[in-house]
Amino acid sequence: MKFSSSCFLRIFLFALLFFPCFGFSFSAFNLKGEEPELLSLFRKAYPDIQFKSEYNAFAGDWKILLSLEDRTAEFFWADGMFLPESEIENKNLYNSFLYKYDFALHDPADFTEEDIEKIRQFSSTENRTSVKGTPPFFYDFVYDCKTRVSLEQHIKKIPFLGKRSNAHERLREPLAKVEKEILESSKSDAEVKNFLDTLLSADSYSWRNISDSGNRSFHSLGVALDLLPRGWKQKNVYWAWRRDIDGDNWMRLPLERRWMPPQKVIEIFENNGFLWGGKWVIWDNMHFEYRPEVILFSRLRNKKNQ
Ligand SMILES: [Zn+2]
């Protein structure tokens, strides 16, 4: 039997009338294209996690199915936010966790008055309490920290550079690599050697919120580390403590009045997937945080901008 083109058209219209979803999935078939390009960053950053993507025509977004050991989770891609279906409507209230981390240090000497005003607004208690912050769902899955009880099964004693520290067991390997490279470097770099000799503490796990905000800190997952040297009070290490002393001018504090780990140490951490809080506009110079996807994303962006 031969069909004419008008006959095909009639069948198609009939299908649309009685099966509206047919038309939806038909158009979705044309629109969906390839899976989100940035998903490959997550596969690289978390090689032991399985990421399966499938296009969901009804939501007009990709569903990402994650599995790790005996755990599975299902999220919508949501521009790289990994949101559960119930949070899709709140998408605009979250900050994307794929953001461009600046490998270069912000020098306050270069700030314009406009920059200062933006930083004031960004750091205001009002702003910090009104946004939902980083979407926690992906990390809740990776680190099994939906509840404190489930998380604490994974918190282990992981000494770092001779200091006592409790951190998430997933950090054992990256921290061991960082430690090995720092120790190696200290043999020929006097600044790194001095950093090791004066290191006071390396604290990681602590169930707490970020100050001024209802969001959980990455210390609550056991994937952030605060490194403090002996005598750190002679310098400034954290923006909010400086704010308590110098009100609105904390962001103008010259770099030389802030405590800094050696550049080599910062680079070693970054090369192993850690961000250093000293490079944030809201600076936290003792803080290192394991976010391999952000490091990969930022390197990719830098490459594209070249
Ligand atoms: Zn910290």
From TrEMBL:
Residue span, Peptidase M15C domain: 212-290
| Record-linked Pfam families | Peptidase_M15_4
Q: Which SUPFAM superfamilies match?
A: Hedgehog/DD-peptidase (SSF55166)
Spell out the InterPro entries in the cross-references. Answer: Peptidase_M15C, Zn_M74/Hedgehog-like
What are this entry's molecular-function GO terms?
Answer: peptidase activity
Which Gene3D superfamilies does this chain map to?
3.30.1380.10
Q: What is this protein called?
A: Peptidase M15C domain-containing protein
Species the sequence originates in: Treponema succinifaciens (strain ATCC 33096 / DSM 2489 / 6091)
What is this organism's lineage?
Answer: Bacteria, Pseudomonadati, Spirochaetota, Spirochaetia, Spirochaetales
